[in-house]
Amino acid sequence: MYKSLYVFLSMMILLIGCEKANNPHLFQGVKQEKNIWNILIIGSDSRGEQQARADTIMIAQYNKKENTAKLASIMRDSYVEIPSYDKKYNKINAAYYYGGPELLRKTIQHNFGIDVSHYVTIDFEAFVKIVDTIAPEGIEVNVTQTIIDDMGLHVKPEIQPLHGKDLLKYARFRHDTESDFGRVKRQQEVLRALKQTLTDKVHSIDGVLNLPIMAHELSPYIKTNLDIPTLFSLGNNILFQPIDNIETMRIPIDNEYESALTKHAGSVLKINPETNKEAIQKFFNATKAVNTP
After folding, report:
1. How far is CA 118 from CA 38, 70, 167, 223, 231, in A?
2. Least C-beta-crowded within 10 Å: which of 5, 21, 62, 242?
3. Distance (Å, whole) CA 116 – CA 36
4. Keyword Membrane on this protein (predicted)?
């Protein structure tokens, strides 16, 4: 019982401190069936600017009844139709730049037929703060190759803990043969590791007692339309009913896209709209991931 009370207190502290949209009705999220949440996760590189393109676009699904979680990454250079956009097509991350979370939600629904009920936006500074608050000892990741990056990251291939700034550089690294595709894999790996670390923390007395403190420190760095009842329900279930595995996929799927150069958007990934839409819909309603890690 005391764990649930601390989670509730933490969620209240987190949401009171979170930055809300000026118009709470701006994000017109669509509720899913009972016990299922689809949440849009946006990682942005704002660098102090009012407008920013989305660097990371993910849809996370939690099924309370089945106690399962799925995570779909949509590559930022995917060339899609953006509703109400004068040039009609652009990279999907441009939707966030022009219309924030709501236009990105509409763009995802328009192109892939997937509805989301809520969103969470985290910028780079927030990510570093979250990692260092949740895991001051670092988050353990399996680095599979030597990485030397112009952002100052230099790591050898081995399982090792990375702190906030280095973990961000690791997740954003794309100067290898896989380019942005490899980066998507690392982003999913990092998110799974973060979730596991937080779950491990709250299963100790010290971890539970520190939840309100962590919530207070993290709240200024997060933008969301989640309300207290929803966040409490999600937090209580996910933290205290551990999910052994998070299924993942990527859009575009293999062999259903081609690289192209456009005048107004630069280098893009022209996706096959029908096959990619079918794949992500199947993923969120099936038991097997489309793309294996």
Report:
1. 7, 15, 26, 11, 10
2. 5
3. 10
4. yes
Domain-located, residue 92: yes
The residue behind tokens 């989305």 is 54
Distance of alpha carbon 73 from alpha carbon 280, whole angstroms: 10
Structure-block tokens of residue 249: 């996929």
Q: Domain span at residue 185?
A: 2-283
| Spatial distance between the Cα atoms of 185 and 104, rounded to a whole number of angstroms | 22
Q: How far is CA 30 from CA 105, 111, 116, 279, 285, in A?
A: 10, 16, 6, 21, 17
- Number of domains composing the chain: 1
Contact, 110 vs 81, CB < 8 A?
yes
Strands 78-81 and 266-271, by their bridges, are parallel
Report the share of the chain in percent with pLDDT over 90. Answer: 38
The whole-angstrom separation of Cα 103 and Cα 129 is 27
Instruction: Judge residue 108's burial from the number of C-beta atoms within 10 Å of its C-beta, 0-12 exposed, 13-18 middle, 19 or more buried.
Output: buried
Structure tokens at 6: 């601390």
Query: Comparing C-alpha atoms, which of 106, 111, 129 is closest to residue 216?
Result: 129
Q: Which of 19-33, 114-128, 140-154, 188-202 has the lowest mean pLDDT?
A: 19-33
The tokens for 168 are: 């961000």
